Amino acid sequence: MTDRIAMVRGHRVAPRWIFVEVRTEEGLAGWGEAIVPKRAAAVLGAVEDLARNVVGADPSRIEELWQRMSRGGFFRDGPVLATASAAIEHALWDIKGRRHGLGVHEFLGGAVRDHVRLYAWVGGDRPNDVVAQVKARLDQGFTAVKMNATEELDLLDSAERVDAVVARVDAIRSAYGNTVDVALDFHGRVHRAMAKTLLHELAQYRLLWVEEPLPPGQEDLLPEIARHAGATPLATGERLLTRAQFARLLEMRVVDVIQPDVSLTGLFELEKICRMAEAYDVAVAPHCPNGPISLAASVQVDFCAGNVIIQEQSLGLHYNQGYAGLPPGEMADYLLDPAPLSPVDGRLPRPEGPGLGIEIDAEAVEARGADWTLADPVWRVDDGRYAEW
After folding, report:
1. Cα dihedral sign for 214, 46, 372, 365?
2. How many other CB atoms are found less than 10 A from the CB of residue 256?
């Protein structure tokens, strides 16, 4: 008799992560991770709704269940449903790998590399103290960092604020030269006119990339923005959900690096997006300022996709510092063995374990569960108008 899915359960855990557990009638367990933490109640509700689509089904039929979750309702799409579906799908791949004793990348063509390079965050939401923070990351073995470019920025803003962005990058280059790769995240905070100005000023610093140069929904303006970037690569895509959305982006032929997030796209869809990008000679740097399961799922794709150039991860990230009195959190808090996700010289070796290659500590998930609330940041420009976060 075919094993069946018996249970799907969402967990909110400190500091801001959403884990999804799937168990089968035969006792196999798999784990996935959802995001959109500022809408956690909605995400957990979506997980509960989608559970009705998959409980009782054959867990090995991952693509069919993915289609059912993502296309089975008359109303579809959106980040809440996407991330709930993705987390369940991660868990199904984890179960498949455990059943057959193979890492997920072995089902997707096998390894194309021996290790994957990582980058680390510096500077925080309001970037500061970047030289010292870069030094700390270099001491940890990283050779690439990313930081937010700016805090609040108006549609047209002052030369002083432009100079502040440039000064931070210049300080890093003055301290460390080109021994460290620096990516700059505009974070969708920068409007068109200021993006043109900043890109022009930053072209001299040979950045690894500039990320999300425009707010979401402004992708049609990217060709105009690219004309002001010089040789600086442009990166985007962390808020896109599907191959179709990435196809439209790739057809514009102005983005050099795409950044799909496995906790929005799902694991197999991420692999398909990588293959599609390869046809356009576009690099992939998967987005992952998330928890351990999201990183483990991303890494499985990294090892079978040759155009993945670097992987984001959240070790020491400012977002992990706890909310509403919760303790800080790190990925190792939920792993029986932290070694598979512990960077060595700024990179991760090929995962050896089955499924997603990690072992989740279910007791820690229960012990550190928390009904946390993350307030939306209220960022405003000088006269009180809403500003992009």
Report:
1. negative
2. 18
Tokens representing 54 are 């998959």
Is 100 tagged catalytic?
Answer: no
Instruction: Indicate the burial class of 159 (C-beta count within 10 angstroms; 0-12, 13-18, 19 or more).
Output: exposed
**How many domains are contained in the chain?**
2
Is 90 in the same domain as 117? Answer: no
Report the chain's terminal Cα–Cα distance, integer Å. 52
Return the DSSP state at 118. E
Give the containing element (helix H, strand E) for 234.
Answer: strand 234-236
Q: Is 292 part of a structural domain of the chain?
A: yes
Say if residue 158 is in the same domain as residue 55. Answer: no
In a domain, 386, yes or no: no
**pLDDT bucket at 326, cuts 50 / 70 / 90:** low
3-state helix/strand/coil string of 364-375: HHHHCECCCCCC
Q: Which of 70, 102, 134 is the last residue of a domain?
A: 102
Q: What is the pLDDT of residues 232-273, one digit of tens each?
A: 999 999 999 999 999 999 999 999 999 999 999 999 999 999
Half-sphere exposure of 361 (CA within 13 A, CB side): 15
Q: Is 187 a catalytic residue?
A: yes
pLDDT tens digits for range 164-201:
999 999 999 999 999 999 999 999 999 999 999 999 99
Sequence-ordered list of residues with C-beta below 8 angstroms from that of 316, at least 6 positions apart, any chain: 120, 121, 330
The answer to whether residue 376 is domain-embedded is no
Residue 51 falls inside a structural domain: yes
The single residue of 187, 191, 228, 318 carrying the catalytic annotation is 187
Residue recorded with tokens 């307030």: 375
CATH number of the structural domain spanning residue 264:
3.20.20.120
Q: Which is the catalytic residue, given 11, 105, 191, 287? A: 287
Range of the domain at 15: 5-102
